[in-house]
Amino acid sequence: MVKAPRDARRRKACVIGAGPNGLSAAIVLAQAGMRVDVFEAEAQPGGAARTMELTLPGFHHDFGSAVHPMAAGSPFFRSLPLADYGLEWVHSPAPLAHPFDDGAAIALERNLDDAQTALGEDGRAWRNLMAPLSDHWPEFAQDILRPLFRIPSHPFLLAKFAQDALAPATFVARRRFRDERTRALFAGLAAHSFLGLGQPLSASFGLVLGAAAHAVGWPVPRGGAQAITDALSAHLARLGGNIVAATRIASFDQLPNCDITMCDITPRQLLRLSQGKLSSQYRRRLEKFRYGPGIFKVDYALSSPVPWKAAECLRAATVHLGGSMAEIAASEAAMAGGKPAERPFVLLSQPTLFDPSRAPAGKHIAWAYCHVPNGSTFNMLERVEAQIERFAPGFRDCILARRTWSPAELEAMDANLVGGDIGGGAVDFRQFFFRPTWRHYATSDKNIYLCSSSTPPGGGVHGMCGHNAAKLALRRLRQ
User: What is the DSSP letter of 63?
Assistant: First the structure.
């Protein structure tokens, strides 16, 4: 733990943004004894980790992510007493299911022994790929979620990861697995990267999410993602921190005098409110920041569970809809090329199968999205539902209500989702290692820090961007 400045209790910190990273930064600073105010533009804190009635009364949908392996596996979140504030993880029997056109499906089992058996001829290869990471998850997560360009605490473990992580997902899948279905399973995991599956680094997402499935599962928070935000907020309040909601900060001049300002915003927002506080050289670096693809999202209120052809899909909170590896790769290649995919890879969550509290008795919710070019205005609803119907005939008959979200509508609800980008920026090889924020979250102003998912380790509900940035700020304040 970083030693707090001796006069920390006389120090003041301001945090812009009450998403998971802003709240995490605020908690770290409050733990050090600083007085902390968090300013949130929206009336409801949480950023993309919010739960709302988006379709019909009594149906509680997650605005952003619904399934949270990285939150359950976050080193920082695991260090906090979040269960004391009501955060409860609900695990589906299988973290993930991936159906195929013949009516069968692969269920990725949480237990690695069961997964090895289920994957047949590829079972041993899957274990060899995932076990070194899942068996040492606390050490692995600590290294991959820490600031870049630091000496790893477990270099041999990280070297094992790097053997495949830097490669394209299609290359790793073909080299490691024989069965096309196992290759498709890995491709679906890797597609969370928003990269073309032939691009370097795309395999890293498949490895991390696969290892997390076996180490910590892919759980949903009981009651929805808001439970994560509420637990973080309650812990911050216990430490003396304060959240000021419905207060949009348009300039640093709006903030009270403070020693540290943490910004849970993207480079575009930081440029808008800096007004002369940042050097011209640093501003130019921020201007070069590139945002990644967006998503087209649909929230559903359903009269019954999704009628999957494959019963295995009813065992998983998350279902990947894309068919073969070749189809998933084609979908992501179209998106990367600036076109809407004809047959998009669809990620679907069905939390009420395992947490019925989120819908009226006997009713259900579902949440689905596909990847689209940043800022796309193309309505993907028909193509998304065609993919669901492909594996669940009669799905449309179950729909009581739906709400669609274009990239622009997502950004209007959360300014950090620029062009519908839920990952905080493009994660291709060049920007992943050399973002404008690569200097460990500091800006050209010694009191201002960037702590959003536009900083390492990037997107996901894990709070580590805020944690890492606040630790740096405290070290520099002590010095």
Answer: S
Where are the domain boundaries for CATH 3.30.519.10 in the chain? 51-73+82-107+293-422
Fold of 51-73+82-107+293-422: Guanine Nucleotide Dissociation Inhibitor; domain 2 (3.30.519)
**Portions of the chain given CATH number 3.50.50.60:** 8-41+247-290+424-478
3-state secondary structure (DSSP) of residue 96: strand
Name the CATH topology of 8-41+247-290+424-478. Answer: FAD/NAD(P)-binding domain (3.50.50)
| Cα 129 from Cα 203, distance rounded (Å) | 11
Amino acid at 28: V
Tokens 């009594």 -> residue: 58
Alpha-carbon distance of 370 to 119, in angstroms, equals 26
- Residue recorded with tokens 């979040």: 82
Which residues are within 8 A (CB) of 17 and not within 5 positions of it... i.e. 6 or more apart?
Answer: 38, 39, 40, 41, 47, 263, 264, 265, 416, 452
- Residue type at position 364: H
pLDDT tens for the chain, 479 residues long, are 444 444 555 799 999 999 999 999 999 999 999 999 999 999 999 999 999 999 999 999 999 999 999 999 999 999 999 999 999 999 999 999 999 999 999 999 999 999 999 999 999 999 999 999 999 999 999 999 988 767 777 888 989 999 999 999 999 999 999 999 999 999 999 999 999 999 999 999 999 999 999 999 999 999 999 999 999 999 999 999 999 999 999 999 999 999 999 999 999 999 999 888 999 999 998 999 999 999 999 999 999 999 999 999 999 999 999 999 999 999 999 999 999 999 999 999 999 999 999 999 999 999 999 999 999 999 999 999 999 999 999 999 999 999 999 999 999 999 999 999 999 999 988 787 777 665 679 999 999 999 999 999 999 999 999 999 999 999 999 98
Q: Which of 52, 41, 45 is nearest to 19 (CA)?
A: 45
Neighbours of 372 (CB within 10 A): 26
- Here the tokens at position 323 are 């068919």
Answer whether 299's CB lies under 8 Å from 403's CB.
yes
Long-range residue pairs from 127-133, CB within 8 A, at least 24 positions apart, any chain: 129/164, 129/176, 129/207, 129/210, 130/207, 130/210, 130/211, 130/214, 131/214, 132/157, 132/160, 132/161, 133/157, 133/160, 133/161, 133/207, 133/208, 133/211, 133/215
Q: Which of 415, 414, 410, 408 is CA-nearest to residue 272? A: 415
Q: Is 116 within 8 Å of 129 (Cβ atoms)?
A: no
Question: Dihedrals φ, ψ of 439, to 5°?
Answer: -80, 50
